[in-house]
Design a protein that fits this description.
about 600 residues; alpha+beta; Nucleotidyltransferase, domain 5; 5 domains; seven-stranded mixed β-sheet; 18 helices; about 45% helix; globular
Amino acid sequence: MYLFRDEGGDVLYVGKAKSLRSRVRSYFQRGDSRVGTAQLAERIADIEVIVTRTEAEALHLEQNLVKRHRPPFNIRLRDDKSFPYIAVTLADEYPRVMFTRERHRRGTAYFGPYANAKKVRETLDVLNRVFRFRPCEGPRPGRHSGIPCLDFHIDRCLAPCIGAITQTDYAEIIDGVTSFLSGDTETIQRELEERMRDAASSERFEEAARYRNRLSSIRHLAERQASDKRAVGTVDVIGLAVEADRAAVQVFPLRDGKMIDRYAFHLENVAGDDAQTVLEAFVIEYYGSAPSTPPEVLVPTAVADTSAIAGFLTARRGSRVEVRAPLRGEKRRLVELAVDNARLALESDSAQRAATRQRRVAALEELREVLNLESLPLRIECFDISNIQSESIVASMVVFVDGRPKNAHYRTFSIRGLDGQDDVGAMREVIGRRFARLRDRESDESFSQMPNLVVVDGGKGQLTAALAVMEELDLPRVAVIALAKREEEVFVPGLPVAIGLDRSSPALQLLQRVRDEAHRVALRFHRRKRGVRSMRTIFDGLPGVGPVRRRALLRHFGSVERFLEASQEELEGVPGLPQKTARALYAQLHKAGPS
């Protein structure tokens, strides 16, 4: 194992090699065609070496180091986030069936992961129409008024809140839900068919029609979720396609011969890596957070040596995992299907990227022409002020490079020394503080770069304030404009009236995206500051909540409003907060006494 570090000690890249000398030397050779290698070599200040006994052990260590340091030059999954699940709260008196991305609560059964949130919500909607479990939140059913909600009246809930169904009968319904989600779709279909026939034979035709509709829904859901391949068994089928510096991966999970879903991923920073290296990096990311590992994983034939992957997955599962590239039969056909899907996903992504790139270029060209700029506005900085009267006045600076947001260069400011609400004065302060650090090349990479275009949110007053400050600082020539929200008018220095751009203009749409992003960042920072202040006031005197738990609650809920609206179940789900403390906290907030 080897780690490249920069001058500040931050990890740039984590790699592994049998021959360390030749691998590390390759990064410093001239003529290396791999994208990003030159930028990496320029930033390397130190190399750290770790010796492992086996390749599987090296994969485990690489997983831990990548997860800990998140090095910018390692292969990574794009749009990486937690998987959606369906959760059944079996510990509740009347269990809920709900959408979640968490997977840590005791007494809860989890089904998934699923490919996307939309599919989970569609599945829940169908299941609710068929099984009519309660959709209300909280560990106990019903509302404080004791009156059943609309779902009861439209036959979407059996109303355990008013005793319309016994706990035993409700438990049978939840058993049906869990059986269906576990793959047993035949039982519920037989039951619905029998009830439909009984109702029809007794001339209860409206009831029979309801059973018919539920049966149709459940059949459609079962057909959409499952593709029967009993001879294949329980496996994960992985397809891989690599092109230039990007790769696409498709995963087909089959459980007891049924294809329960399909997961699609895109990877970046893969330039110059072979299929085996890319697949190993994907396996580390994907199975490092996946809830389970199957006993068999099928991979493309381009992956020659699967021993390291098999060792890694075996350790994850706790029992032997076979990783192989099938050469014939149904399993080979499934791998080829996954590879074809990965290739199509990569082609589609490339086409979308090209179209998006063309739109960005058109917007920048039009912006240069409309504003009469000397060059393309490749770096745009936008500033926005957020406050409620004079409370917690803050400002944001967002940066767009080549028409895309560069989040690492975003900055926020707390405005100091203003009396009352003064947006013009606040804009004057933030522009001055930003450009006073223009030559601060060592401590802040964002402040040290000169923008091609500065956009201030507001009208002539904000524009005049920004220009005055920049003239005082004797800055190099840079274009400055103001964008007013109400009529989307663009104010330019030297012109008495605003420039009117067509609403469909790519240039105006780009300016709107930049302005809206600045507004979003400023508003989020403002809410956080108000939230911290309000949290400190609210937490004073609450039982069992000190500074550490206060930070944990704020980090978990994000705002005072969300914290105050939290149910007891949600408080019990806060990491690091004991359930007894959560119950006491809920009782104190709702003045309900200890539970």
